[in-house]
Structure to design on (106 residues):
């Protein structure tokens, strides 16, 4: 390879590596996220599967604290790309407009 082509080659290679690493991370996250619809499913997923649990939450600190006390799981994030969807909080049964991600810290 000529010296003139090295910079373009390495630049393209680094971009390809970045794209592949990013896609691998996206795929890993998707494979390790479980959507749940009630508190029984929530507890089972947290205890047995690990990873992230996607669940509706009523938005109150009180509910978050109770879930943490019972399962040791806390909210990790409210995804930027969370879809607006009508649901009910897995713990309180109150209305919720989108899902959040819960997980345990290890």
């Amino acid at each position: 390879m000529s010296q003139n082509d090295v910079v373009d080659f390495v630049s393209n290679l680094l971009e390809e590596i970045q794209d592949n690493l990013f896609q691998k991370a996206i795929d890993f996250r998707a494979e390790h996220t479980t959507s749940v619809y009630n508190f029984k499913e929530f507890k089972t997923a947290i205890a047995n599967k690990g990873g992230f649990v996607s669940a509706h939450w009523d938005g109150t600190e009180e509910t978050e604290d109770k879930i943490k006390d019972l399962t040791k799981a806390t909210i990790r994030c409210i995804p930027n790309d969370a879809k607006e969807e009508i649901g009910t909080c897995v713990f309180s049964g109150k209305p919720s407009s989108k899902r959040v991600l819960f997980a345990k810290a290890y």
Q: What stands out?
A: DSSP finds three helices and six strands in the chain. The first helix runs from residue 3 to 31. Residues 1-31 form one domain.
